[in-house]
Structures are given as structure tokens and as C-alpha cells.
Known about the structure:
single chain; 8-stranded mixed beta sheet; elongated; 9-stranded mixed beta sheet; 32% strand
Amino acid sequence: MLSPSTTGLHCLFLMISACCQTQGSNFYPLSYVIDSTLGHESFYPEMQRQKRNMFIIDLPLPEYMVDIEVSLQDSSYLQPIKDYFKNINLPINISNAQTTVSNISITTVCLPSGENSSCCFCENGHAWPSTVCSDVMPCPPASLEPALPCGYKQKMPFYGPYCEPQTEESCGVGEPIVMNMSVRLDSDFQDDLKDPSSVLFQKYKADLEKAFNASYRCLPGFVSATVTGFRPGSVFVNYRVTTGAASFTQLGDSNRAVQHFLDPSYQLNQFTFTRVITNETNFTVKPSNIFEGDAVRLTCEINSTFTNVTWYHFDQAISTGSQYSIETVLATRRSILKITNVTLKDSGSYSCVFIKSSPYHTEIHNATETVSVFPLQVTPNFEDIDVTCNSPEAQAKGLLLSCCIDRHVTSLKVSWKVNGTINITGESKLNGNCTEYQLNINESLCPPEKSGSVTTYTCELETGHGARRARSIGVTYLRKAHITVSSTNTTVSEGHGFNVTCKSDVSNYDSISWKIQSGNDTKRVDCNKCIKNYSFPAMSVLTVKSASQVWRGTFICTFSQQNLDSSANVTIEVVSLPLKKNILIDPIATLIRCQVPHALQCCIPANTVRNYTVTFWVQQNEYQVVKKKKGDLLCYMYNHTHKECNKDEEFVAYCKFINRIGEGVDSEHIRLQLIPEKKISCSDSLGIGREGDKLIKPCSDVKKPKGFTRGNVTYQCTNREWIAVKNCCLTGPINDLLGGAESLVNSPEAKTELPSYLAQLQEQTRKELTTINNSSANIGAVVTILDMVSSIPAEAEELTMQNFLSTVDLIVDDSTTGAWDALNKEETQQSSLLLQSVENFSQNLQPVNNTIPSVSANTVHLQGTVVKENNNIDYNKDFRSTKNLTVSVLISGTEIQTLTQNSTIISVMYSKLGHILPQDTSEKVNGLLITTTLSSIRRQNFEVNMTFAKQNLSLKMPRCVFWNFTLKNHRGNWDDSGCTTTESGDNVSCSCNHLTSFSILMSPDGSSSEPTVEDYISYIGLAISIVSLVVCIIIESLVWKYVTNNTTSYMRHICILNIATSLLIADVWFIVTASITDQKQQMSRDICIMATFFIHFFYLCVLFWMLTLGLILFYRLVFILHNTSKTAQKAVAFCLGYVCPFVIAVTTIAVTLPKQSYTRNDRCWLNWDDSKALLAFIIPALLIVATNLFIAAVVIIKILRPTIGDRSSGQERKYLFQIGKSVAILTPLLGLTWGFGLATAIQHSHRAFHILFSALNAFQGLFILVSGTLWDKKIQEALLKRNSSSKWSSQQSKSSSLILVTPMLAMSYPFSRTFNNLCGKTGKYRVSSSEPSTSSTENTSKAYSLLN
Length: 1348
């Protein structure tokens, strides 16, 4: 073994054996040590050549290579030894070994290098074997001179392998590789380093290349190191090293040596050497064609070890998650990235980065591949398609469905799924990139009730790598419907109605339309009110109430479903027949004389005459007529002679028109009155009559085109002359407009014709304004027209709305006030009808382009809006009249959200219409009138807020009201139900829970009239009664246990106590509500309803308890021998006293409250004008009063029953006194004072009855206290002796002993005795002490005790 200071020399001897070959022997390197004395040799014993047995054969001489290691103790001998071996003469024959040394080469020289290591060099022409190329490490540069060849560290002892003759496979020989590397200089980057021509760049490049070449020169096969550039980030040096295959460790050692050859000012960071290898990674992607939804596998594999690997998508590092998973196997030097359910976003470059690092070297293997993800586009041949499943073509050919993709996929998998109520299937096949599905359509699989059903066919395509796409095709299976149409009459007369019914076996229709074809003309029936559609069964009924010639023709009914129409038709013939309203009768009402002919006639326009059969009917007798043409009229005349002259009588006559199909129409009746001849005062061409009689004539004028107009003229016989007292004739244009409106509303094209008619109506009304102003009949006719046309839905075109509102404005002008006053005096409903027509018109408006235009017509202004989806914006509209009066309407967005989409909210302001509505003299309309309507069905409560400006600031007590069309027999009246009022300066705010027409009513200053005598009596009497009833209840509670010692007395005091309590509660409610009403203070509508209910209920309780008291008295008087338990009597009493009133009160409020007619408008009491709710109090009260009056009569009769023997005059006076006293007791207790209410109900009754009724009932509480409590002797005694228990006990004992023989609770003993005498129980008959007699006496006495 060599010592550390020993220099080794490795020699290669080529020995040639001359005559033999050694078999089974090994040659080892010979360790030959040459000491300081040259020429002395020594061999290690273990390396000595051994003798072997040898045999000689005649073969070619073998050659052997022998490695000999020569160790020198002194390195100075190294060169002489090398020279010695170079200069030695060869060949050398070794005789004793029969060997020839043919060549000696020095291959490896090792110099000492630290403990147990040396630095070995290969001689020229020799190189290290490739097997150790990656293991040899350069010697530290400090121990090497730059000029010396590179040595490599070897451990000692060194047993090889040694350098070998250089070949193509030797270490460092062969094609060099280029390594791209970088290192960082910890200095600031300067811009000159970007310029290769700059001095700084050149200096850095030269210095760094010198250092790099010096440090890397010992790498196997090193060629050069070249700086390629600099980049910022401190200073990064990019350089390229061209060398042989160097190992990771070799590069690290070389990197560490760089700093020894570089000036320290460069501040090289020796830990930042990095090599990036881009061409040594095997990167594979599967599958090659990637579609959305596929699972993708990316694999990177390198041929060297690594410490970690990182995957990147673009520059973003990938971490393991739900979509990504990374599998790295160090043993196989492989990393796999798996991506599931890829999307288009996953396209792009993917990089795998393998990193191996040591302190002085980092090696990065980097590979990048671009992944393209393609959308898997599936295109069906249909999105949705309709199929008529019972059509011959569909059943013959079926339907072909297909789905195609835009790329070829080798492993495409296809499936079809069917989902729907109609299960029609087919056959699937693959055709290239398409899958086809041929449907087999069968009518039996498509029943009528399922027509319109959608079956979804879903094609699902899968690539085989996870990508899956599905597309659905909706097939709507329609069935052509079987339509049947029928009519009640195929031939119908004008003015008569008929129905056409259209039925379909397919119920799932989308729409139904009707058309009428007459000749070449076809018109659509656009009449919402005359068509009614049904779903189950599928049916449409067209109802024509009054046929005209426009309805004749072929009716075509069409059921539409999707784009499939199914139709049927029926022909209707309309036969002419005069309409009743178009038959002129003359006279309308007249007087006739007996035995004198009187001309009666019926006329129709001559141009409407057909082959009619006309007769006159008088008193159910038929008479023939004479036909005569008068101008444009054709009249049918009959001279009637009345032959029965016994008495004055009234009867009617009429004419009957019958057409060719036997259907007829009767004219209006002609009223005839027979009068004696001697009484005739007026007699001329108009007719005859007595003074003051009236006759009515039609509005006929043969000179006019139609010969007559609607209406009549009333004449009165005055001073032997007929004077026209009332003219209700319409002018010709207005009459034509009225007829046109009647035709329009009955027209199949009413909606289409409405705009042109409204334009005509507005124009003619303006032209006839002068005659309209002076004629209530004309105004009434125009209102009727507006009411009729308002029922027709109109499109919200500005011109259409303008014409309607302008007509309204014209007829409410100040010039028409007189005509309106006349109409209101006649108690017509025209003013209310006008308001109703505007409401209907606005409610039926249909938006155009989803808007409602704002339209103004002088005194009428309309604004509105359309409710949009998810609309929560407040509805807020402001209006201003020409006189600067204002009103605003506010509906919150919360309320609007409850409405259906595309419904409308429309408000209409009127500045004059409110003043022509009927109103009380005590309150005036003191603001604008505003109408707000909804087109959609709304919930019961819908909050709307309005603010009115006062017109007359001197008026007081504002009240928010709405026009209730149902009040006053549908004439309408103001009502404040559901509204609350808030006054604020010159404005009044109203909040109501419903919609209609609103305004404010106010009273003149000091509007409440002076209190009447009845008012004073009521307030004083009720106050005294309330106090009296409280006293009565207190007294009853104090003496209760003393005076209720038997059943009769107990029941009497039960009745009195409940009467007092109920009357007290009722009086308190009454006086509170009456005072609030009289003071004109506002009261909540709900509180008013509650107060009315309790007043009604408790007054009924008072009356029914009075009835109970009367019935108990009657029971004790009549059923003397019958006795009922106290419990039974009490149960009956309470049921009668409270249950019956409760049932009546609840029934009343349940019936009338939904109709807003429970209470009166001016006070909190039961309504009379509208619902007659007051009868729910009047009828029970009168029945109870009548019953108790009968009971009181029975008591009087009992008192007046004669006893045996004559009565003295003193006794007569005593009985009269008893009768008077009994009446005084019974009248208040039995409620007989309520009977005086009958007198007040009589119209124009004397005021004295009203005062008497008020006094008797106001002081009823006082009367009950006096007659029912204070007048009772037993109560008096109980109060006087209540504190003396001993005296009371004595009195109680005494009273109890008299129960069986004297009337209990009598007002005085003599009075009671007299009662017994009058009832047959005087001293003339001895009272038996037997039990039956005692019982009878007891019951009778108990009956009379009720009077106390």
C-alpha cells in the first residue's frame, strides 16, 4: 500500500508469451516499489508471480496486457522514471518466463492529495474508462497549476480502473454536449449589460469566461464555456458550457471552483448555479384528441434522479385537487398529471419541471407540451318539432331524428333516451359522425287527451375517455281535432237569441277563434262577453242575445294548438223581424170614450218591411189591421171601439208582428183608459180627456228620414186644451247615435269598430251640444251610449281615449247643469251611470306597446301605468284642474307587487263630475273627484292614499268618501266605508282599503244644526238612566240574599238585574257614539261597526230579558198548578236573554257587512236605506212589545175578574187604583214604551210622538229603578233593616209564614189582599190547610209577586 507521500506510477506492459498459454490463471497488477536507490526492486509478496503447470502446444502466441503500479516515495523521481520507461529498448525477452515485453506505456500518474486520496492524471493518448467517467472528480484547483493537465481524485489505496488507451468510448471522447447554465451576481444590474457592444458587457464577459473555462476545464470532454448574456434580477449571467457527459456531482464541484478564478468584486453567489435541461424529458399526452369532459393523462419521464417535480399550466403551479391529481414515482423517474372532466379553460401549455439540487448546483429538467381541448359539439337536426300524429304522412314516413358531432371520434358510444307521456320509440343507428333515430309513429299511441304533450328524445354521445354530451329534441305530438258544431237554431229571427256550440275531442287547445263568412266577406268575432270557452270538455259557446243581419252567414269555429288548426262550421240564417224598440206605437197612453172608434197604430220604417203578418191585440182579442204608408213609415192601423161602458177601466193594446218562420214580436203596450163622455174637457186631434188628464204621444215626424225618434211627449189637459208639459224626445243625431251604439255592442266586430264610433260620438255630441243642454233626455241618452260602449275593451290609443273623455267633458259642462238637475230630481241613475261608464272604460283599456298614454280633456284627465315584472316602484300620479285644484294618488310598491304582470292601474280626475252626483244639502263635494281602477283581479284589501286640495276653505269637517253604486236602489250615494281621513291645512289626506271613485265631503261652517228638544231629552234622560241603572245594580247586589228566597222572586230579580246591566251597556255605547256623531268628529269605520254591533246586541238583550220577565209572569198566572225547577227556568231565561240576541246580531252583520250596508253613512246605527238592516231590531222589538202587551192585558183581566157578591163603589175605586199601579209597574219592566216607536215610523207624524218616544225610552233606566227596585216593599225593608240581623230574621220569618196565603213580595199587604180577593181568594172562602190548596195558593201568589 502506498503511503500518503508516495507517488504512484501505473505502467501497462504488453507481454507476449512465446510458447504457452496459461489456463485458469489470473493476472493482477504488480505493485512495484522503487526506493531511493535506483535499481533495487521489490515485489509485494501477494503480487509475486506464481509458478504454474504449463504444457506446450502449437498455437499462435497470445498477448497479455499487464497493469503495473509503481509507487515512489519521492515525487522527484517521477519524471526520470517516465523517461526511463520511454527510453527503454523493446522488446524485452524474459527468458525464464518465456515472455516478451513488446510495449510499455505509462497510463496513469497519481500525486498525493490529502489524507487517503491522490490526484490522478491520464497520460497522453489515454483516458479514463467510460464506466467511471461520471465518478471521477477533478482535483481541487488549489493543488493544481492551471498549466498542468487535469487530475481526478481517487481514494487510496487505488486499485483502478486506470486510464486506458483513448477510444471513441472513453470518458470525454465523442460528441460534446451543450449545457445552458446561469449564475447570479449579487450586484446591481446596469443597462450596459443589455448591450453586447458595451465595454462593461465585454469586461464582464471576458472575466467570467476566463473563470468559467478555468473551473470547467477538467470536466470530461470539456470544450469551452461562453457567456451568452445578462438579465436583471441582481445580475443573472447566462452562459453555455460545451463539454462531455458530466455528472451532477462533477458540475457541482466545478461550480464551486469558479469563485477561485473570479475577482471577488463580482460578488458571485456560488449557490445559484443552475442548469436547465429541455431536451432530455419524455413528455406524453393521452388521449391525443381531447374533448370537453375527457380524462387526460400527462406523463413526464427523465433518465436521471430528481428530488421533486412541479407541474405548471401556463405559469400557474398545479396542486392536487378535485380535478387534478399528481402521481410521482422516484424509482421510475416519472411523474403523471391526471386531469378529470377537462374544459376549454384547461387548454394551453403544460410544463413538468424536475429539480435536483445541491449547495453548488441545481439541475432542472423542463418539458412543455400544448394541450388543446376541443368542444364536443352535438348538433341535432331539430331543436323542437311538431308532429301531427294522426296525419297519414306522419304515420307512413315516421320522423327521423339525428345528432351529429363536428369531429371524428374513433370510439364513439351513442344512446337515445325517451321521456314523455306519449311513448313513441324508434330505432337507432350510427352513420359516420352522426347517430340517427327513426321514430315509428302510430295514431293509437297518441290519444286526443294527450295532444300537445311534449316527448323529449335525448341523444347521448360519449368519446370513451369520459367526455359525454347530450342534446334533447322536443317532439310535440299534436292530434288534429275532431270538431263538431251545433246551433240551437239554424234559422233565427232578428232580435232573438241563439247559441252556437263548438266541441273538440282535443282538450289541450291554445286558443279558439270564431269567424263569420258571408259571401266574400269574412269577419272575425271579437266579442269577449259573447264567447265562453271551456277546457273540460273542450268547448266554446258563442251566445248572441239579439241577432241582427250582421250575424248571418257561416260560423267557422277553429281550435288552434301550436300551428295546427281544426275547424268546423254551421250556417245561420237571420230572418227579418222588427225590434221592439223600433216599433212606433201611437198613442202611448190615451183616454177613450165608450162606443166611439179610436185609431191605434204601429209603424215601422218602410225600408225594413218584409212579408210580416201584423195584428192588433186588445184585452186578449186579436184584430186585423189596415196597412198605410206615411212618409218613410209603414203603419198598421186599427180603429178600436170599446162596447162595455159600465165603469171606468184601464186596459192595454199592442200589435204583434210575425215573420215567415212564425216567430213574432210584440210592440210596447198602448195604455187605454175609458172615461165617461160627460166628463170630457179636451178633445182634438191629440185625443180626449178630462181636466188634468195626461196623454203620451210618440216622437214621430214623417218628414224625418226614419219617421220617428225615441222618447215621448206628455200632454196635460189644462183649460180645455192639451198642453205639452214634458218633452223627452231625442234629437235625430242623438237617436242615430243611440241606435248605432246598440248595434255596436251587439256586433261581432265591436272592438274593431269602436274607435271610429267614438270619433263620431264626440263629433255629433259637440254639434248637438245646444240641444243637449236643454234636454235631459238627450243627456240621458248620451250617458246610456257611454255606458254601453264602455263595456267594449279598447286599445289604449290616445285618439280613442281622447274621444271618449271629450264626450264626457262635453256633457258635464256648466251649460248642462239644468238638465242634470232635472235628471236628479227624477231620481234617475244617469249621473251615477256616467261615473260607472268611465270606470268601466278605464278598466277595460288594453295597453299599446306596454304603455298607457296620459290624456286630458278640459275637465277630465287620465293617467295610468302598466305593471311590469318584479315592479316595486310606487304608483304616484298628480293631477291639477284648470282652476288649480290638485289631487294626488299614491299606491305603494308593496301593493303593486301583488298584482299580475301586464295589468294596468289607471286614474281619472274629474273637476266637474263630482258636483252633478246627487248629494245631501248638509255636505258638499269640496275637492276633485278621482277614480282609480285595476284591470286585474285584486285581493279584498288594496291600500290607496290620496291627497285632496280643498276647494272652499270655509267648509269644515272633511270626510273621505267613495261613490257606492249599490246604495239607494243602485242610484248610488257617497259612502265612507274603509276610508280614514286626515286633515292638514288646506289639504285632506285619505287612506282607503279599496278602489273606486273618491272625493271629500265637507260641511258648511257651524254645520251642525241647533240641538232639538228630542236631543236634550235624550242626553239628559240617558245620563239619568245610566246613573239610575248603576244605583239599581248596587241595590240589587246589597239585598240579593234577602230577596231571592224562592224561585219566583229569584227569577224576577235575575231578570231585573240583567235588564239593568244590558241597558246600562247599551246606553253607554249609544251616548258615546251619538255625541261623537253630533260633534261631527271623525270615527274609525271599524270602531263604528263595533259600536253598532254592541248597541244592537245589548238593546236586543234588554228586550229579550223583558220578554223573559213577561213570560215568567204569564207562566205563574196561567199554569198555577205547574212548577218548574229553578235551574230549568234559569237556563231558558239566559238562552232567551242572550243567545237569541246574539244570533240576530251576528246574522245581521254577516249578511250586510260584506255589502258595505251594515251601518248608516251619517251615524253609527243600523242601515235602513240600502239593506234594511234596521229591521233586525224593529221586528224583534215589535214582536216582544206585542207579546208583553198581551201579557199585561192578561194581568189586567185577572185583576178585573169579578168575585162572588157585589162590589161597593170603594172597592171599584180600589181596583181601578190597582190596575193603574200594575200598568205603571209593568210598562217599563216589559218594555211597552218601545211601542210608541210605531208612531214615529209613520211619515209626517206629529212631533209630540217623537218627544214622547224619546222621553219614555231615555228615562227607561229611571223607571226600572223606581218600579222594579225602589217600589218593592221587601227591598225597602231589606235596606232599612239590613244592619239589624235579629230584626231581619224576625221579618224574614214572618214573611216566610205568609208565603202560602198571601202574595209574596207585594207592594203592601192591603194591596196584596185585594189581589187575592179579586182572584177568588177572599175571606169568603176559607183557605184549606191541605197541601194541594197550599201549593195552588203559593203559585198564584208568586205570580202576583212579579209585579213588585
